[in-house]
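Thread title: Can someone regenerate the structure for this chain?

I was given the following input by a collaborator and told the matching structure tokens would be attached. They weren't. Posting the sequence so someone can regenerate them.
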Amino acid sequence: MSLDRHAEAIATVREFAARSGAQRVVLLVDPGDGTTATMLDCAADGTLELTEGEETQPVPETVGGAPRPLPQLRPPPASAIAIDPDSGELEAPLGAIANLGRAVLGLAQAFGGRSVATADFATRDPAMPITIAAREGEPLLLAAGDRRFVLPEGVV
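Best answer:
Regenerated them for you:
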């Protein structure tokens, strides 16, 4: 597997992770043309793995290129977000979840096709991060604990 041909995606995921403050960022690059999808998985500490087919390998920090453009991102502090997965009650500053949702969707859209992006964001409760998942043309999903919620269309 050649990491160089994924340099743009590698750089974009790293840029998103750095700007978003996400605990984890996963990008599945799927052009939708029947070719094998590639998954990039970036942890909060900057560790990045690339999976293509059945092969997974770590990506050295020296690999990367110019990132694709991403939407503006203004991540709120973890202390500003709280969720009760049982009731679905979400507490966050006005527009904060919409901004995070637009950013995750922008990451998926940067690679088009059937690409999917997810990002985990810290909340007040360290044991209860939220995950936002996005694919162009589909509703945004927010997950917390073992619950999944579809975000309303007006959020993005």
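The chain has two helices and ten strands.
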